């Protein structure tokens, strides 16, 4: 499934060729598809490894960031995160860097894997608090560690207003776009955030949360790792049931202005996802629509 105009395909044969040339010690291990997101295609390698192949040159830039910072962050966080073990180099059949991580054995957070949603929300809040409080260790909001979701809403206004307008052609009357637009504008109307910069995961959607024994076990996919303001970090909690969302906010004691900006970010990311992927990734569009529905049903 191709999602981007500049996408580089990466099927099993490509992975086998990369392994044979650069990691012959793993070349004969079993290989199985392990999912594909908007930025990466993944394959499980043997029982203990995961191969991640960026879809585009733009998303490939994050690999060196992960290689540099994840080993330094891991000991400081309360839940498991990916452990990179190899950074692959571009090759004739795949002209982008690629990576191998240790396999984390858990189930995507969902109704079949979580036994207590309020506890899940509290656990996620603990992870976020610890990540945001972790020393920057010399990192700054620059280069690959500077991402739009760690900045101010105002810089995205023209883009997101256009996405909300485009969404009308996709969702029609199924969602109240007028109210969602008001939520976006309410975020813009808040005072500029004054908090210090910190580490941000950037995409704490349920697909990037793993559960074991009914509880949060690991947080994966740090392709959006950056340094910035925390408002957008809270946005994906509208992908979770209300019990998790409310427990998360209570545990972090998020003030109203921050929550209003977080809600605006939640609207923005979902609307832009629908606008961009409407003809290529129906499952992701459905996920974005579900988020907007939850915002309308439980905005605060």
TrEMBL record:
Q: Which residues belong to any copy of the Aminoglycoside phosphotransferase domain?
A: 33-255
Pfam families, alphabetized = APH
Q: Quote the CDD domains the UniProt record gives.
A: APH_ChoK_like_1 (cd05155)
At the top level, the lineage of the source is Bacteria
Q: What is this protein called?
A: Phosphotransferase
